[in-house]
Design a protein that fits this description.
Blueprint (H helix, E strand, L loop, with lengths): L6 H13 L2 H8 L3 H15 L4 E3 L4 E3 L1 H29 L3 E7 L1 H8 L3 H7 L3 E7 L13 E6 L7 E8 L1 E5 L1 H7 L13 E4 L8 E5 L2 E5 L5 E3 L2 H9 L4 E5 H9 L4 E2 L9 E7 L7 H15 L2
Parallel strand pairs: 3-4, 3-5, 8-11, 8-12
Antiparallel strand pairs: 1-2, 5-14, 6-14, 7-12, 7-13, 9-10
Helix pairs in contact: 1-2, 1-3, 1-4, 2-3
InterPro entries: LysR-type_TF_proteobact-type, LysR_HTH_N, LysR_subst-bd, WH-like_DNA-bd_sf, WH_DNA-bd_sf
Family: Belongs to the LysR transcriptional regulatory family.
GO molecular function, one term: DNA-binding transcription factor activity
């Protein structure tokens, strides 16, 4: 495989030819004179031709140098332009922001906020991917994620926005038919609807003072989305645990009832999550600031 061109050496050579001085080129590039001299010598060695004749009183390009300098100057100019464009984009909120969020929370809480944001930042576009699976931000090219979790991932940068309480619920019709659990262990005798997007079995954990109880639910239905669980709960198919933002209307209308209210279920939390390395593009920074402010207000 051929070696890559020495783009840095060619750009330095172009700056030396432009300034007609190694010392002035070094000053403009903020490099040492020795570094500049070595870069030009490196290009000469690679090409097998001398590019510059220099003495105490003379600076002159050789034939090879004159032949090369135009293309080298183009490399320098294109590199400077590319950096300027990248810096401008980093400072100006524009371009595509790829965001992932849980399906139900994304539909109910995130998506309604986006029209206002897009009106305020018309040069930004958003690719919103809704899924309850734990997406690989870096591997799948996402700029950021909204996650509901106890721990959103140790390798990522996460900002906690607010708690997301979860409740054990069932319909009055189910409770009339199957009875009301009095303690977490009673759930082993009940039809449980599990919420999980992994292949492992879900475990329900409850605490009360110093007591801690874990229950492995079993029952007729296991789903990977809270909205899909809700109709089954209302229809009396079983008992289940859902986040509070999905339960508000069903609880207020008495379609569902909270169970074991004196036992606590570890709450999840809403997090703004970004990859761990480097500064964020301006478009992602302003989107994050906007969503953090809106979602933290509840």
């Amino acid at each position: 495989m051929a070696r890559l061109p020495d783009l840095e050496g060619l750009a330095i050579f172009a700056k030396v030819a432009e300034c007609r001085s190694f010392a002035e080129a070094a000053a403009e590039l903020r490099l040492s004179k020795a570094t500049v001299s070595k870069a030009v010598s490196r290009v000469e060695a690679r090409l097998g031709a001398r590019l510059i004749i220099r003495t105490a009183r003379r600076f002159e390009l050789t034939d090879a140098g004159r032949l090369l300098v135009g293309r080298a100057a183009h490399i320098l100019s294109e590199g400077e332009t590319a950096e300027d464009v990248a810096k401008a984009q980093a400072r100006t909120p524009s371009g595509l922001a790829r965001l992932t969020a849980p399906m139900s929370f994304g539909m109910l809480r995130v998506a309604p906020l986006l029209p206002e944001f897009l009106s305020a930042f018309p040069d930004i576009s958003i690719d919103l991917h809704l899924s309850d699976a734990m997406m690989d931000l870096i591997g799948e090219g996402f700029d950021a994620a909204i996650r509901i979790a106890v721990q959103p991932g140790a390798s990522l940068v996460a900002q906690r926005l607010c708690e997301m309480p979860r409740h054990l619920v069932a319909s009055p019709a189910y409770l009339d038919k199957h009875g009301r659990p009095r303690q977490p262990l009673d759930l082993s005798q009940h039809r449980c609807i599990s919420y999980s997007y992994t292949m492992t079995t879900e475990i329900w954990r409850f605490t009360k003072g110093s007591k801690s109880v874990s229950v492995r639910p079993s029952g007729p239905l296991r789903v990977n989305n809270g909205d899909a669980m809700l109709p089954a709960l209302i229809a009396g198919i079983g008992v289940g645990i859902l986040p509070e933002f999905l339960l508000g209307e069903a609880l207020q209308s008495n379609q569902l009832e909270r169970l074991l209210p004196d036992w606590s279920i570890p709450p999840g939390a809403v997090h703004w999550v970004t990859p761990p390395e480097g500064p964020l593009p301006k478009r992602v920074e302003v989107l994050g600031k906007y969503l953090i402010e809106k979602l933290a207000q509840g």
